[in-house]
Task: inverse folding
């Protein structure tokens, strides 16, 4: 990424001589090969596991379980993609999840702190951990790899010291954060939960409205917009996917999982932050061309510091989700969570060298990891082989990214 493109992500300069509608459909698809190939890979993986599991993967209750069991991947991946785009890495998030989860459980069970307050304190504690690591990275200048590697050891050790083996006896309200669903407040439409149907309709309408507004702004300002055929195709596919997922969740035993609302809200917030705020543009600028960003007035130390504070807070949210899902805190919680988040970010199109990556793309990568997790579990594949499969997928995704860049050049 050149210095001229780092501060405004990611649109081409307008050409006053003509309206730019993105060119031909073929050229548009070629330029966005990575994005659409990952969506295609997700579809292929879902279809394969649907076949291999004799149709069990897309059973309504299994789809709800996929969301509940892999919510931590979605949450951590959101923060990880921001860290990687800025040119860093965070190896400590799994240990931070174990540490914060242990402290949260002890606050509830040993100190009688109301679980809602404990959840807030968990997010704050995660932010404090992130601030501690961000200080060493941003203001002392120690590479993030070294700082977070040390953090991985420190917070895993503290988790073992604090938790010991297991801290159980958590209240049902806390456990429902990950295991519960929204109440059937609107009754049922046949066998479908009415509230879930309403949420699905609102989600589909939101996608259509936001995409139309975005396209209108691009056309109004004579900036590059995707071909109309691609635009319509994307809307149709999005509505079909949202409708099908809505049907599956509305048919499940509980309806909409509570944790899905949490994840959805975070995706919307961070997509807006990265695409529509000065902070987001500064993150892309730093990852694309750090010297140019510094010369342009970007306060890189502050941005780096806030990135790690944000990562710590999201790790605190993931700690609450993980502890709630298990119904207890264990010292071994969060093992390999950092690898799942890093893999999901890379699979979703985040560039290894920074500067390129989207929250929505990372969520696609997290979905791929989630489908692999639950699909291999349904097939009763040994945990060691599951790790091997995920490693192969990660290597294939990064290799594809590198080959695609060479092809573009």
Result:
């Amino acid at each position: 990424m050149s210095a001229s493109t780092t501060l405004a992500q990611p649109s081409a300069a307008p050409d006053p001589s003509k309206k730019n509608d993105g060119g031909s459909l073929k050229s548009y698809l070629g330029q966005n090969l990575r994005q659409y190939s990952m969506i295609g890979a997700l579809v292929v993986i879902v279809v394969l596991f649907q076949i291999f599991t004799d149709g069990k993967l897309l059973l309504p209750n299994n789809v709800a379980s996929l969301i509940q069991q892999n919510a931590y991947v979605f949450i951590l991946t959101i923060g990880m993609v921001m860290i990687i785009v800025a040119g860093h890495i965070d190896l400590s998030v799994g240990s931070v999840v174990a540490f914060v989860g242990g402290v949260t459980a002890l606050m509830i069970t040993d100190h009688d702190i109301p679980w809602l307050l404990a959840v807030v304190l968990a997010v704050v504690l995660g932010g404090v951990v992130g601030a501690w690591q961000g200080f060493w990275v941003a203001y002392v200048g120690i590479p993030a790899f070294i700082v977070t590697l040390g953090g991985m050891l420190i917070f895993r050790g503290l988790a073992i010291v604090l938790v010991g083996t297991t801290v159980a006896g958590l209240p049902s309200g806390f456990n429902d954060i990950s295991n519960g669903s929204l109440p059937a407040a609107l009754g049922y439409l046949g066998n479908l939960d009415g509230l879930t149907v309403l949420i699905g309709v609102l989600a589909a309408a939101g996608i259509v409205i936001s995409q139309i507004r975005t396209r209108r702004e691009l056309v109004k300002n004579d900036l590059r917009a995707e071909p109309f055929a691609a635009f319509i195709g994307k809307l149709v596919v999005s509505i079909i996917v949202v409708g099908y997922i809505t049907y599956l969740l509305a048919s499940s035993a509980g309806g909409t999982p509570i944790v899905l609302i949490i994840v959805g809200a975070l995706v919307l917030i961070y997509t807006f932050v990265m695409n529509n705020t000065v902070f987001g543009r500064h993150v892309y600028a730093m990852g694309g061309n750090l010297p140019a960003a510094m010369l342009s007035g970007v306060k890189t130390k502050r941005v780096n510091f806030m990135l790690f504070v944000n990562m710590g807070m999201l790790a605190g949210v993931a700690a609450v989700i993980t502890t709630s899902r298990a119904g207890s805190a264990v010292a071994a919680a969060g093992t390999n969570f950092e690898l799942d988040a890093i893999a999901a970010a890379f699979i979703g199109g985040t560039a290894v060298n920074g500067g390129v990556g989207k929250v929505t793309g990372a969520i696609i990568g997290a979905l791929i990891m989630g489908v692999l997790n639950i699909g291999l579990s349904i097939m009763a594949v040994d945990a060691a082989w599951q790790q091997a499969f995920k490693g192969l997928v990660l290597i294939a995704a990064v290799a594809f990214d590198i080959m695609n860049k060479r092809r573009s050049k």
Summary: The chain has a mean pLDDT of 86.
